[in-house]
Each structure stands twice: as structure tokens, then as C-alpha cells.
Design a protein that fits this description.
Elements (H helix, E strand, L loop, with lengths): L1 H30 L4 H21 L8 H18 L5 H7 L6 H23 L3 H47 L4 H11 L4 H13 L4 H6 L1 H4 L3 H16 L3 H25 L1 H24 L1 H4 L1 H4 L1 H25 L4
Helix pairs in contact: 1-6, 2-3, 2-11, 5-6, 6-7, 6-12, 7-8, 11-12, 13-16
């Protein structure tokens, strides 16, 4: 009885999941685009790396500020177009998953089959709703797992990275070479910093210059902290100066950014809670009304006009949720 009563509501919910997964697949490049801060960091990094390479090759050139900025902007546009949506294999490596593309696709197929069997056996719905939900699950659940694991790994890297920079600063002040300090981090730091610095040391051991090996770190871990570190190393290799002082200032900047992030999170907690309540309220109210007075709301599911109203409401709710999400997400 409960299954037959909730059937139309579940069909609408499954349809909304299908539409949401398709919209996420269509607009993922825009959602996954880098922030304004990251774009500025990459522009500065591109300019500093180009200048460092020119000096290393023994061909220093005097460039005007306009020419340097123009070249950096062109490189940034090309890089942004290339990395707007990282390839699947790159995102798998950034999430520290050893899967191949075929493995990921097999996981998607297995998720869809398991969802179809679960819906068919437990909810007693028809074949068409079960197929729709299985397609949505096969597209959405592996993607959410990969994205969540990748984001958590980036957060752990950002939390541990300032401590690693402090180790480099103390080692350089004590007279150790920079490579030895990096080896200490590769042996003693916490993951994922430990694994990334191991790759950096391996690249340097195979003959790649240290400056170029460091520049590959932001490509594997596309976060602002890694970009800042690469910029400092590039500038220091080009102009010289006190590396300990530069990295010490970088450590202070990263810790202040963490404090600012925590302050923003605390100040925006009320707005996020309000946005979540407002976004969930129509769905909760509709579900309660359907449970208490099914005949009153059944017209939305049994008539063509009601179906159009449901579709229109779902679209506008999605637009409103995206707008609220944009309003409560703060970049710094």
C-alpha cells in the first residue's frame, strides 16, 4: 500500500535525479573551472616560469611590462582552455585511484545494474522508472565518489603543506641543500604531501632540473598552495636571494589563508544553513502533503497539466538552488 501510494512521487524523484545527472555532465566544465584567484596565480606562475627558463638558457631578454603580461595572458588562456575539464585519467590520479578508464566504466555499469536490481526488488516499481534510476545512478554516483575523494585529497594536501614548508625553511637555515630538505619531506611528511614530493624527487633524480620538477607539482595537485610554492622556487632560481626568507613568508601567507578560510566558513554558516533549509522545504512539504492527503496532491501526478507544473517547479527550484549556492560560496 505504501509503495503504491509513494509510486508517483518516487517516479518524479527519479526523473529529477536523471535530469540533475545530465545537467551535471553537461555543465561540469563550467562548474570545475578554476577560481579567479587560481587563474591569477597561474598567470603569475606562467610569467615567472617563462622568465626563469629564458635566464637558464643564457638568453636573457629585456621585455616591457605590456609584452610580458600579454604573453602570460595568452599562455593562461591556452592552459585554461586545455584544463577546463581535466581528462578522466588525470582526475583518477589526482584522487589517488589506480583505476584505468575501463575500470571506471565497469564501476559505472556495475552501479547501474546494482541500482536496477535494488529498485526492482525492493520498491516494486515498473521497468521504466527502474531503468531511469539505474542510468542516473551509473552516471552520478561514481562521479560524486571520484570528485569527493579528489577534493578531500586536495584539502589534506593544503592542511599539511605549510608544515612541510616550515621543514624546508628550518633545513635551509641549518645549511642543508634544498634537495635534501625535499627528501626529508618525501620520507617523513604525511600523505598526500609525502607521495607528491616522492614523485618530485624521482623526477629530479632522473635528470630533470629541480625548477622544472617543482613546476609539475601544481599540475598534479592544482591548488593555490602548490602554485605559490612553484612561483617562489621559480623566482628564487632566476634572481637568487634568501630562499629561507621567501619560503618563511610563504608559510605565513598559507597559514593566514587558512585562518581566513576558517573565518569565512564560520561567518557563512548561517547563510548556508538557511539556503539548505529553503532548498529542502518545498520537497519536504510536498512529501508530507502526499503522505497525509494523497488525493489532494495526486492531480500533479495524474494529469498533464500537473506534470507540466511539476517540471516547471523542478526547473525553477534547480535554478534557485544554484543561485543560492553561488551566493553562499565565497572565494578568497
Amino acid at each position: 500500500m505504501l509503495i503504491s501510494t509513494l509510486g508517483p512521487f518516487l517516479i518524479f524523484l527519479l526523473g529529477a535525479c536523471c535530469v540533475g545527472s545530465l545537467l551535471m555532465a553537461a555543465f561540469y566544465p563550467r562548474i570545475a573551472a578554476t577560481s579567479a584567484l587560481d587563474r591569477q596565480v597561474e598567470i603569475i606562475s606562467a610569467g615567472s616560469v617563462a622568465a626563469a627558463r629564458g635566464t637558464r638558457d643564457g638568453k636573457p631578454r629585456k621585455r616591457s611590462v605590456e609584452e610580458t603580461l600579454r604573453e602570460a595572458a595568452e599562455q593562461q588562456r591556452a592552459k585554461a582552455k586545455k584544463n577546463a575539464k581535466p581528462p578522466l585519467i588525470v582526475r583518477l590520479r589526482q584522487a589517488d585511484l589506480s583505476w584505468t578508464k575501463n575500470t571506471y566504466y565497469l564501476v559505472c555499469v556495475a552501479t547501474g545494474i546494482a541500482s536496477f536490481l535494488a529498485i526492482s526488488s525492493t520498491m516494486g516499481l515498473g521497468t521504466l522508472p527502474a531503468v531511469g534510476f539505474s542510468i542516473a545512478a551509473s552516471l552520478l554516483f561514481p562521479h560524486l565518489y571520484l570528485t569527493g575523494r579528489r577534493s578531500r585529497r586536495f584539502k589534506r594536501f593544503g592542511a599539511e603543506f605549510p608544515n612541510s614548508i616550515d621543514v624546508i625553511v628550518r633545513g635551509v637555515k641549518a645549511g642543508l641543500p634544498l634537495v635534501d630538505c625535499l627528501k626529508i619531506i618525501a620520507a617523513e611528511a604525511q600523505e598526500p604531501v609525502k607521495g607528491e614530493f616522492k614523485k618530485l624527487i624521482e623526477d629530479q633524480t632522473l635528470g630533470m632540473p629541480l625548477n622544472e620538477a617543482v613546476q609539475r607539482l601544481p599540475e598534479r595537485i592544482p591548488v593555490s598552495e602548490a602554485s605559490f610554492f612553484a612561483i617562489v622556487i621559480a623566482i628564487q632560481s632566476r634572481t637568487g636571494g634568501s630562499l629561507a626568507e621567501a619560503l618563511g613568508n610563504l608559510s605565513k601567507v598559507l597559514r593566514e589563508r587558512k585562518k581566513m578560510q576558517a573565518k569565512i566558513r564560520a561567518m557563512s554558516a548561517e547563510a548556508k544553513a538557511s539556503g539548505g533549509i529553503i532548498g529542502a522545504l518545498p520537497i519536504v512539504v510536498a512529501g508530507l502533503v502526499y503522505l497525509t492527503s494523497p488525493d489532494y496532491i495526486a492531480l500533479l501526478f495524474t494529469t498533464a497539466t500537473g506534470n507540466l507544473v511539476l517540471v516547471a517547479c523542478g526547473v525553477w527550484m534547480l535554478v534557485g538552488i544554484l543561485v543560492m549556492r553561488k551566493m553562499i560560496n565565497f572565494d578568497f
